[in-house]
Write a structure and sequence with these properties.
With 160 residues, the chain is α+β, with helices and mostly antiparallel strands. Helix content is 31%, strand content 32%. It contains five helices and nine strands, in the order ββαβαβαββαβββα. The strands form two sheets. A five-stranded antiparallel β-sheet has the order 5-6-9-7-8. The protein has a four-stranded mixed β-sheet with strand order 1-2-3-4, with helices on one face. Strand 2, helix 1 and strand 3 form a beta-alpha-beta unit. The chain is elongated, with a radius of gyration of 21 Å.
């Protein structure tokens, strides 16, 4: 028997269905039928996502798959975090490679060489990130958040 939780505040609804594809499909179809304009659903396969989209889901999430991919990147030991915005764009938290330490970002050639951008910097011992700028100089032990295509980010992280 499927368990579910639904919260409805027209015109937005959130339904969390635990177990049972049929319950997920039925709930999604009913939410769409009553006029919910932004229906989110969870799927475990591409086939399930296709069905949910056909019965009215506007957004389909794959939490198990997404978390599996995220953990796979983290176990490499070089990444502190990995967030995929879409299949072609990620943000990753890591530490800078030696070649970037002590060099202003604008002079590092980072974008040209690796096709990634340092977006945020958190100096060692600090609690907050700051925006990276051309004159930002990275130090050992700091954390950086970089953005780019997954393969470019992976290539950059492998330098370390």
């Amino acid at each position: 028997m499927a368990k579910y939780f639904a919260w409805v505040s027209l015109p937005i609804a959130l339904a969390v269905i635990v177990g049972g594809l049929a319950a997920s499909i039925l709930t999604t179809a009913l939410l769409s039928e009553i006029g919910i304009r932004d229906v989110w659903a969870k799927a475990v396969s591409r086939q399930q996502a296709t069905i949910l989209e056909r019965v009215g889901a506007h957004h389909v999430a794959f939490p198990e798959q997404d978390m599996g991919e995220r953990i796979a990147h983290l176990v490499s030991g070089r990444l502190l975090d990995w967030v995929e915005l879409d299949p072609q764009w990620v943000f990753a938290k890591t530490r800078p490679p030696r070649e970037l330490v002590g060099v202003p970002l604008g002079e590092s050639g980072l974008r040209k060489r690796y096709r990634v951008t340092v977006v945020l910097v958190k100096p060692q011992g600090q609690d907050a990130y700051t925006h990276a700028a051309n004159d930002t100089v990275l130090s050992y032990g700091c954390e950086i958040v970089i953005a780019g295509r997954p393969r470019d980010v992976e290539r950059f992280v492998d330098v370390q």
